[in-house]
Write a structure and sequence with these properties.
Blueprint lengths: L6 E8 L2 E8 L6 E3 L2 H14 L21
Antiparallel strand pairs: 1-2, 2-3
Length: 70
């Protein structure tokens, strides 16, 4: 599994006004959004930039057929 990225996301809505603040745990300042689409695009881009996990080899895993430890 690749490196994880952790974000704190705060969303609030008052009447018809949308607000969101997103802060990565390794950043000091949050990024502010006033449209849901902006927040979604930011999170989509953040997930696309995340390092991908190595591909599983085809076929059975190396420990197939082994009894799991007790």
């Amino acid at each position: 599994m690749g490196e994880s990225r952790l974000f704190l996301v705060r969303v609030w809505q008052q009447l018809s006004q949308f607000r969101a603040a997103v802060r990565s745990v390794d950043e000091a300042e949050p990024r502010l959004f006033d449209e849901p689409a902006q927040l979604g695009e930011f999170l989509r881009q953040a997930s696309a930039e995340a390092p991908s996990s190595p591909a599983e080899p085809a076929g059975a895993p190396a420990n197939a057929g082994q009894t799991p430890p007790v």
